[in-house]
Amino acid sequence: MRTRAGSGRWAGRRSDSTFLAVCSPHASAKLPVAQADAECLPIADSSLAAVVTVLTHTDMPGYPAVLREVARVLRPGGVFVHLGVHPCFCGGFADRSEPAAIVINPGYRDNHWTTESWTADGLRDKVGATHRPLPDLLNEFLAAGLVLERFGEGGSPTPVVLGIRTRNAGTGY
After folding, report:
1. Which of 6, 21, 26, 40 suits 111 as a labelling partner, its CA being 20 to 30 A distant?
2. Could you report the per-residue pLDDT of 95-126, keeping only the tens digit for each?
3. Which residues are paired to 79 by β-bridges?
């Protein structure tokens, strides 16, 4: 998880020690870097103007807790941007063998962890992923106290990435 403090300084948070070992020598010259649990961030309440997470929600069974932490550390009016795998067209239920005609098989509506994949060439069938149907994912943002503002999709011809911009409408903690 990467956060940007209101002062213009970047703060990096990541739980992967290998990633930190490789990136820290380069990144630490420009931003503070620490290993942390995204469900319990070592960041003060209402202290950040913005938070961004990229391609994480399928790797975190506790993503609802992460969203609550985001709401906690964002100052009122702060922005959270989520960029993630599109839940409608990517997952074990989606047969992507023909990119122009994705077939959605049974399983999309189930909130679950899976190693099912349409291909053996990727990581999903080896390490697994958490799938959340789009309504469940969006409702998790609302349950955390975040206000949905904008949406975007990336990928062609069928979207593979979903972008969500939210704002913390809270009055602080």
Report:
1. 40
2. 988 888 899 999 999 999 998 887 788 888 88
3. 50, 167
